C-alpha cells in the first residue's frame, strides 16, 4: 500500500464514521437546530466520499446544493421561527421510539441485503474520464434530457408557487360578512398598488 | 505556450539527489504548498489590513498608523498579537460548542479556496478540473458558520446579523455564479489555469475585461456583497445591530472572523484578476518580447523572470481591486436591506442572465473572439 | 410592448445615472487622498488655542470680594465660596474658593459677571487625571498659570485655520514669522481712538 492508497483508506473510514455519527445526531438530537447543523455534517461527509470516488464535480455540486442551499434554507426557516419550546413528555413514548427504530432497522436490513446481493460490475480497466463536466453535460442534453427538463419545470413551478404565496394580495373579510350585519373593516396588506401589466 | 517552472519536480528531484526515496520526497513536498498558501494568505491579509488603514486615513486626510514600524507597516501584526492574547469570553447561556465552531466553519472554506488561485502556469496548489466551481461551492458553506455563530451567541443582534448574512450570501451567490459562468463558457473550462491561458497571447487586449465588461461589474458587486464589504455590510451594521454575528466574540475567535473577512476580500480580488484581468499575464505579451530580444523560451533566467513577474502581476491586479474596495468603502453609504435584495434579485440577476445569453450568442456568432 | 421597452429604457437611464454618481463620488474620495493630512500629532504638536478659548478658570484670591455672583450665574451653582464676616473690618473675608472642573461646563458665565475681574479663563485644556476628585481645584490650584504652548520647548505650536496668513491653508505650512490675515486686536484698538477723535471734532 503506497502513500496515496493509505490516505485514501484512512479518509474513507474517517468520512464514513463522520457520516454515520452525524446522521445519528440528526435523528437523536432533541434540539432541532443541532439536528440541522449535523445534517450539514452528513452532506459534507458525503461530498468527501464523492471526492474519494474521483467525482469532484458531483462533490462540489453536493456542497453547493445541499450544504449551501438546502441546509441553509432549513436553518433559516428554523431560526426565523425560533420557538424554543419544551416538549411535554408523551406517555408511553418508548412505544413510538421503538416502532420507529423497528422501521428504520427494517429499511436498513432491506437495503443491506440489496447491497450484498447485487453484483456491482467493477471494471478496473476503465479509465476515469478526464473531464467529467463535459460528460455530464452531454448526458443531460441527450439521454437524460427528459428528467432534466422535468426537474427544471418542477423547480419553476415551485418558484412561481413561492412568489404567489409571498405576494398574497387577498382581501380579508369580504366573503364572511352576513346579510344585515355590518361588514367588518376591510383589512389589506400594505402593498404597492397593482399596476396593469401591458 | 511557455510551460514555466515546475517547482514540485525540481524539489522532489533535489531531495532524491540527497538519497531519499521518491515516495518520501513526495511526502515531504506534500505539506509545503499548503503551508506556503496559509502563510501567503495570512501575509496577504496583513498587507490588506495595512492598506485599508492607510488608504482610509488618506481618504479622510489623516495619517493613519505611523509609529509601529516604518509607515506603520507592523500595525496589523500588533493587532493580531493583541487579539491572540486577549481573554476568550464565552457569553452566559450561549452554546459553547457552536460558539466555537461558527468562526472555524467561516474561516476554513475561505482558506481552502486558495487551492485554485493560480500565480503562474505551475504556481498553484492544484489545477483542479472543477477549478472555479470549487470556490463557488466552498463560499456557499460560509453562511452556515455565520448562522451558527449568530444562533450560539444568545444575543438577538447576533441572530439578526447571522440571518442577514445568510440571506445576503444566498442572494448574491446567484449573480456571482452567472458572471463566472459567462467567463467559463468562453474558455470552455472551469479550471482557472485554462481561463487565464484563454486570455493570454494578446497582452492587455486579450483580457476578458473587454469581452465581459458587464460581467466584471456584476462579479465585483456580488463579490463585495459576499465579502460583506462596505456598501453591503448589513450583517455587521454598527448603527443597527451592534456588530451583527460578531457582537459576542472576543479574542482569537473574533480574530478568525476578522481574518476570514479579509482573506475573502483578497481572494475575491485575486479571482477578479484571474477571471477578467488575465491573471499572471503581463500587459505586453512576454513571448513577443522574448522573441524580439532573441531569447529562447527554454532560457532558465527567462523562466524565473516570467514566474516572478506572473506573481507580481497577479498581486498588483488583485491589490488594485482591494484599493477600489477600500475607496468604495468611503464613497458609498450603506444600502438598506430591501435595497440590497432589490439590487441582487431585480438588477444583478436579470443582467447576469442577459450577459450569459449574449455571451452564448456572441460565442456562436464570433467564435474567434469569444472562444469557439 | 412599447411600454415595457420604455420601462427598460428608463431603468437603463437610471442605472447609468447612478453609476455616474458613484463615479463622481469615487473621484472626490480619490482627490482627497492626495491632500495633505490635517492631523496634529498631539503630544508633539499642539494647536495654539484661539484668543477667546475658554479653558480652565484662573482665580485671583486677593481681588475676590466674596459677592457670590459667580455662584448665582453658574448654571449649576458650582463655585464654592467659603467666607466669614469680619466684624472688625465690616467686610466679608474669603477663606476658600474652589471649582470642580470635573463638573464645570466651561461656559465662563462666572468670568463674564465677576465684578472685580478676579476670575478669568486660561487656555489650559489638558485636565486629565486618574481620579475625578483631583479635578476639584481650590484657590491655590486655580491661581496657577498654565504653560503656554508657544513657549514649551517640547511642543511644536501650530496655528489654527483662522490665524493663518493669507493664502496659507494648512497650519503645518505656515511660516512662524508672518502675521495672520486681517488686523490684530491691538491694531484695531490703535485705530479706534482716532475715529473717536474724528467724531469729536465733527460733533460741535
Structure description:
The complex is a heterotrimer of chains A (198), B (372) and C (204). Chain A has 198 residues and is mainly α. In chain A, α1 (3-28) packs antiparallel against α2 and α2 runs antiparallel to α3. Chain A starts with a helix and ends in a 32-residue tail after the last helix. Chain A is extended. Chain A contains 6 helices and no strands. Chain A folds into 2 domains: 1-83, NADH-ubiquinone/plastoquinone oxidoreductase chain 6, subunit NuoJ (Four Helix Bundle (Hemerythrin (Met), subunit A)); 130-185. Chain B has 372 residues and is mainly α. Chain B starts with 6 loop residues before the first helix and ends in a 7-residue tail after the last helix. The termini of chain C are far apart. Chain C is of the alpha+beta class and 204 residues long. In chain C, a hairpin with a 4-residue loop joins β3 and β4 (91-100). The chains are: A mainly alpha (198), B mainly alpha (372), C alpha+beta (204).
What's the gist of this structure?
The complex is a heterotrimer of chains A (198), B (372) and C (204). Chain A is an all-alpha fold and 198 residues long. Helix content of chain A is 66%, strand content 0%.
What low-confidence regions of chain C span 5 or more consecutive residues with pLDDT below 50? none
Rg of chain C (CA only): 28 Å
Biggest β-sheet strands, sense, barrel of chain A = none
Task: Give the CA-CA distance, first to last residue of chain A.
Answer: 70 Å
Helix content of chain C: 25-40%
Detail the poorly predicted runs of chain A. none
Residue-averaged pLDDT of chain C, rounded? 86
Overall tally of domains of chain A: 2
Shape by Cα distribution of chain A: extended
Order of helices and strands of chain C: HEEHEEHEEHEH
CATH architecture of the largest domain in chain A: Up-down Bundle
Order of helices and strands of chain A: HHHHHH
| CATH level-four homologous superfamily name of the largest domain in chain A | NADH-ubiquinone/plastoquinone oxidoreductase chain 6, subunit NuoJ
- Mean pLDDT across all amino acids of chain A: 80
Number of helical segments with 4 or more residues of chain C: 5
Write the layout of secondary structure elements.
The complex is a heterotrimer of chains A (198), B (372) and C (204).
Chain A: H1 3-28, H2 32-52, H3 56-81, H4 93-117, H5 132-141, H6 145-166
Chain B: H1 7-17, H2 22-29, H3 31-59, H4 75-85, H5 96-112, H6 131-139, H7 142-152, H8 156-187, H9 192-199, H10 208-211, H11 213-226, H12 238-241, H13 251-276, H14 286-292, H15 300-329, H16 337-365
Helix pairs in contact in B: 1-2, 3-13, 3-15, 4-13, 5-7, 5-13, 7-8, 8-9, 8-11, 8-16, 11-13, 11-16, 13-15
Chain C: H1 2-33, E1 45-47, E2 57-59, H2 69-73, E3 80-86, E4 91-100, H3 109-113, E5 119-121, E6 136-138, H4 139-142, E7 156-158, H5 185-202
Parallel strand pairs in C: 1-7
Antiparallel strand pairs in C: 2-5, 3-4, 4-6
